[in-house]
Amino acid sequence: DGYSDLSAYERKRLKNITENAKFFAALKLHESAARLNQIATKRKFHVTKSRKPKKDETLPRRSRRLLRVEPLDVPLLETPARPAAKEYPQAPVGPFPMVPEDQAKNSKWTEAILSTWMRISELKVDDADRVTPDIKRYQRSLSSMVLSEENIRKVVKSRVCSMAIHPSESTILVAAGDVYGHVGLWNVSCRSEEGAHIFLPHNFHVNCMHFSPCNPAHLLSLSKDTLRCGDVTRAVFDEICRSEEDYSCFDFLEENASTTIMAHWDGHVAVVDRRTPRMSSELSADIGFKRTRTVHVHPMKKQYFMAAGSVDVCVFDIRYLKAEGNKPVSSLTGHKRSVASAYFSPVTGSRVVTVCADDKLRVFNSKNTQALLIFKKQSKSKPKRTASQNLAGRWLSRFRAVWDPKQEHCFLVGSLAQPRKIQVFQDTGKLLHSFYNTVCLTSVCSINVVHPSQNILVGGNSSGRLHVF
């Protein structure tokens, strides 16, 4: 009653506060808290020890799962068998029939492509001396080459590591090798599905392939452990050489293809004679390289071969090779990083083109027109021209610059530039032509091969697809 000056809301609020205070006072919470505190201070906690069982008493039961012991009475449930890892077919040791993986479905188609290979190999290719066209005429021929959708085909299952093209002038037959040891044959002239077939002559990367220069019915392919010859006349993959050391590349030392020079990844080179019955090399030589990626024999003087390794590009004389202590006839210097390839020019061998991981193409030449003169002087040549090129790429085969067999002064190499293209350079460093097609060519062609007499270019990418200009 003494708060008549307050509003109705404030009087009601004050009344609620008074009633709540009386309610909590009636509970006597302070006394309860003091009583509980007194009880807690007087109580003593005793630590009890577990009683050890007597000898005649049984031990308490414990989980056999925690003890990692199999249960006694309950049988174990049969665990489902895990699916076995996918196993790829393996190529057998020694010779075996030339049977593709799709033989069961397309046996008639396989016979067709093998018979085509045999037929075009029997035709004699015109060996008359061809005049090297001048640069302007050569550029016009390059401009006339085009890529169409029907000239694109997935020939092998994975990344293309090497390619070879048959020298026939009537039929376009291309061979490609991938990282799983497959070798694919594609008859480009055949427009239907039976034009391409896959064989499995190797278990590892097919690093190098060549049709025999004297008998194109033979296709030689090299993997890390073996060199094989696919003989279409007998429909057999013969085994020429086998080694536990890793092979990287090979080239023919003679026109009859009876002897080959082979490079090992660890820096050694070996000479193999196909006429001997044994599967080992005739000579193994340490040339002082940490790694040897390519070997190439001089086109005119077959006693000279060039090896490209980590940062080394040297020319050696096969006649003076020995097991150790080999000295090069000439060294091509200037490479700062690893060299992917080095090749002589196709006619005279007076030029050398190299591809290096420092994104540069280098063209070497001698002071005179004949390159062998500088070889005999044992002097170090300097690069004639350098063309800048972006040559680094992940999951791509190493770029290789290859000479056009029809033109002494021009070579081709893939590119990472957009749009995707294959570029043609002159040995002066001048860009002559770029092969591209924004619709059909959308990937990088690291490996390329050129027909020896026709205006045909084949580029292979990292998915096993070939593009034919």
UniProtKB/TrEMBL annotation:
<dbReference type="InterPro" id="IPR001680">
    <property type="entry name" value="WD40_rpt"/>
</dbReference>
<feature type="region of interest" description="Disordered">
    <location>
        <begin position="45"/>
        <end position="64"/>
    </location>
</feature>
<dbReference type="GO" id="GO:0005634">
    <property type="term" value="C:nucleus"/>
</dbReference>
<comment type="function">
    <text>Specifically binds 5-hydroxymethylcytosine (5hmC), suggesting that it acts as a specific reader of 5hmC.</text>
</comment>
<keyword id="KW-0853">WD repeat</keyword>
<dbReference type="InterPro" id="IPR015943">
    <property type="entry name" value="WD40/YVTN_repeat-like_dom_sf"/>
</dbReference>
<keyword id="KW-0677">Repeat</keyword>
<protein>
    <recommendedName>
        <fullName>WD repeat-containing protein 76</fullName>
    </recommendedName>
</protein>
<dbReference type="InterPro" id="IPR050853">
    <property type="entry name" value="WD_repeat_DNA-damage-binding"/>
</dbReference>
<dbReference type="InterPro" id="IPR036322">
    <property type="entry name" value="WD40_repeat_dom_sf"/>
</dbReference>
<comment type="subunit">
    <text>Interacts with CUL4A and/or CUL4B.</text>
</comment>
<dbReference type="GO" id="GO:0003677">
    <property type="term" value="F:DNA binding"/>
</dbReference>
<dbReference type="GO" id="GO:2000001">
    <property type="term" value="P:regulation of DNA damage checkpoint"/>
</dbReference>
<comment type="similarity">
    <text>Belongs to the WD repeat DDB2/WDR76 family.</text>
</comment>
